[in-house]
Specification:
Helix content: 40-55%
Number of domains: 4
Number of strands: 13
Largest sheet: 5 strands, mixed, barrel
CATH topology of the largest domain: Rossmann fold
CATH superfamily of the largest domain: Hypothetical protein af1403, domain 2
Oligomer: single chain
Low-confidence stretches: none
Mean pLDDT: 85
Strand content: 15-25%
CATH class of the largest domain: Alpha Beta
């Protein structure tokens, strides 16, 4: 017989009348003693968020339901976003709200019911971001060859930051590490990670390490949030994702430029081994010595060849003096030859100038002018005689046909008052005054009558 049976048998042995408050108080104590901590799985519904910060909701399955209360201090530790319809697993004690006699659970933890829903959300987001090209290899940037300043985005108190500092201190203590603190678990982790990424991306680091230690899928879920994935993709600085252990895979691993299986591995990727660098330096030093030895030997041989070709400066000066004398003689000969050519051309031009001197031309022109001056009066006189004869001949011809010659033979010309010559009697009228122009003088006449009579040469 267990303890629960003893409690129920004791309640029925004595006839005791209880008040409602007493009944509810005993029932509450009984439930809390029997169910001090129990896990219950069900679908969340009727979620209420009063201003006090407490959460009240109902857990149900296909056949029953139970009221639940999640007080503020415990609600702050829940890492998931509670909403109606979500399948969850809740832990708490069974109790009774004495004021109403309501049977309920007082919870201290709530988590997703298995990783099936989270895994489904993980695969859906992965497929969508991959379709957008956020996982494409051409977006990935190579690791910096010699980083000097690295930003670490992680929890300042976790094991990941200690592992990273330890690796860098051992392998490359000269590299500057700057920790950008953020929560890496819980509901507030994703927004804080996004802010830390944006802050570190603006700080001008050579690379960024996004790190967290191992954990369950729920613990690592902030690194599967879409906002974190897009913040990693938007970084201009190279990002190494080092979330969880080697078997853990997150969305940030696919979006980042490089995935490291652990935070320590990420530190090793960015921190060159000092011993390996020293060995490489020694090899380079030996190679440099060998190259310098070969180069010096080659230059020595070249110097010897130049030394053999080098002649004494006195010999070189003597050759230059001889060359100078030769050039001086050539210059003198060339100058003398050029001078003779110029003198010959000057004599030729002087002869041409003498031949075409203006004094000789002026003498010829003066002779020509004297001849023309002598010919001019005779030519003018001849021209005047010819013109005078032509004028007299023209005057005689004109006189023969002139009306004045006719008038001189006794004829006259009748003119009307307008000075128009009268050619017919029909152009006059009785009483009209006419003017008769004679060979010598003029007469004014008046027409007395018209006589129609035709003159002939016989009249």
């Amino acid at each position: 017989m267990n303890n629960d049976d003893a409690i129920f048998r004791q309640l029925g042995t004595e006839r005791e009348v209880l008040t409602v408050s007493q009944l509810n108080a005993r029932a509450r104590r009984l439930l809390e003693e029997v169910f001090p901590a129990v896990w219950v799985e069900g679908e969340l519904s009727n979620l209420a968020r009063p201003s006090s910060g407490h959460l009240y909701f109902t857990l149900k399955d296909s056949g029953a339901q139970v009221r639940c209360a999640l007080f503020r201090q415990n609600a702050a530790r829940v890492r998931m976003d509670l909403r109606d319809g979500l399948l969850v697993r809740a832990r708490g004690r069974v109790s009774l709200y004495e004021g109403r006699g309501d049977y309920q659970m007082i919870l201290d933890a709530v988590e997703p019911a298995g990783d099936g829903a989270l895994r489904q959300a993980f695969e859906a987001l992965k497929a969508r971001l991959q379709a957008e090209g956020l996982f494409a290899a051409e977006r990935k940037r190579p690791l910096p060859s010699h980083p000097t300043r690295i930003g670490v985005i992680t929890s300042p108190s976790g094991a990941a930051v200690r592992d990273i500092i330890s690796v860098f201190g051992r392998r490359a203590p000269f590299i500057e590490l700057v920790i950008s603190p953020t929560a890496v678990q819980g509901r507030e982790a994703a927004p804080q990670i996004v802010q830390a990424l944006e802050r570190a991306d603006r700080a001008g680091f050579d690379a960024l390490i996004l790190a967290r230690g191992g954990g369950s899928l729920e613990d690592l879920w902030p690194f599967n949030e879409e906002m974190v994935a897009r913040a990693v993709a938007a970084c201009r600085t190279l990002v190494i994702s080092a979330v969880g252990h080697e078997t853990d895979v997150s969305i940030s691993d696919f979006v980042a430029d490089v995935r490291a299986p652990t935070p320590s591995a990420a530190a090793e990727l960015l921190s060159p081994d000092t011993r390996a660098m020293l060995q490489q330096l020694q090899r380079s030093h030996r190679q440099l010595q060998q190259c310098m030895k070969v180069r010096l030997e080659r230059e020595r041989l070249r110097l010897d060849a130049l030394r053999r070709r080098l002649r004494h400066p006195g010999e070189r000066l003597a050759q230059q003096a001889q060359r100078l004398d030769e050039l001086d003689m050539r210059l003198r000969r060339a100058w003398q030859h050029r001078l003779e050519q110029r003198l010959q051309r000057l004599a030729h031009l002087r002869a041409r100038l003498q031949h075409q001197h203006p004094e000789r031309l002026l003498g010829l022109l003066q002779e020509r002018l004297d001849q023309l001056q002598q010919r001019l009066p005779r030519a003018i006189e001849l021209q005047l005689q010819q013109r005078r004869q032509r004028l007299e001949s023209a005057a005689q011809g004109l006189h023969l046909v002139s009306p004045l010659a006719t008038l001189g033979r006794g004829y006259s010309i009748l003119l009307d008052q307008q000075g128009k010559a009268i050619r017919s009697q029909h152009e006059t009228r009785p009483g009209q005054q006419l003017e008769a122009r004679l060979g010598e003088g003029r007469l004014t006449l008046r027409v007395e009558a018209e006589q129609p009579h035709t003159l002939s040469l016989l009249d």
